[in-house]
Write a structure and sequence with these properties.
- The protein is α+β, with helices and mostly antiparallel strands.
- It folds into two domains: 59 residues, no CATH class; 94 residues.
- It is 22% helix and 26% strand.
- The chain is built from three helices and nine strands; from the N terminus they run αββββαββαβββ.
- The strands form three sheets. It has a four-stranded mixed β-sheet. Strands 4-8-7 form a three-stranded antiparallel β-sheet. A two-stranded antiparallel ribbon has the order 1-2.
- The N and C termini lie far apart (51 Å).
Length: 170
């Protein structure tokens, strides 16, 4: 009994376990529906087999962490610039997200961009969903093509204060 006099379990434990098993089985259709919807959106999903404890006494060894997992796309950019944090970002208040054309043509938009500094000691991480409303476009000459006459392109830009900065721990 709980302190208030209310019983946590009333009735037979096996009845409650049977009800739980039935409810779990019924929820599987919804899990598969959501998985199907996400795959139609271009995501990869993974589901471990659903295991149900045969008895209520064994329930603790059958707990799971989630119904399924979603593989989220990450875009990694190796930069030729060095940085460790916002204070030493070499491009002032402009952070290039990606070329507009490249981003717009992606079926699955990245969940995050991770930018690696030249020394490979620090990362700048940009959460797309949380920051996209702050992006704007600007035409720039891409530095990667400077030695062959340059390449002008439109880029998405965001203020670096929307970026999180991380040291790579070895």
């Amino acid at each position: 009994m709980l302190a208030s006099g209310f019983r946590l379990w009333s009735g037979r434990m096996s009845d409650k376990h049977e009800r739980f098993q039935a409810l779990l089985g019924a929820s599987e259709d919804s899990v598969w529906d959501v998985m199907r919807w996400l795959t139609e959106k271009g995501f990869s999903v993974r589901k471990e087999p659903t295991k149900v404890a045969p008895t209520v006494e064994e329930r603790e060894t059958y707990k799971d962490d989630a119904d399924f997992e979603v593989c989220l796309p990450i875009e990694v950019k190796a930069l030729s610039a060095d940085f460790t944090c916002r204070r030493d970002w070499p491009f002032g208040n402009k952070f290039i997200v990606d070329s507009k054309n490249t981003f717009d043509e992606k079926l699955r938009k990245p969940w995050q961009y991770i930018y690696v500094n030249k020394a490979k000691t620090h990362y700048a991480v940009l959460n797309v969903r949380e920051t996209m409303c702050h992006w704007y476009t600007e035409e720039k000459t891409c530095g990667n093509y400077a030695d062959v006459g340059g390449l002008k392109s439109e880029f998405y830009i965001v203020d670096p204060h929307y970026v999180s900065w991380h040291a790579r721990n070895k």
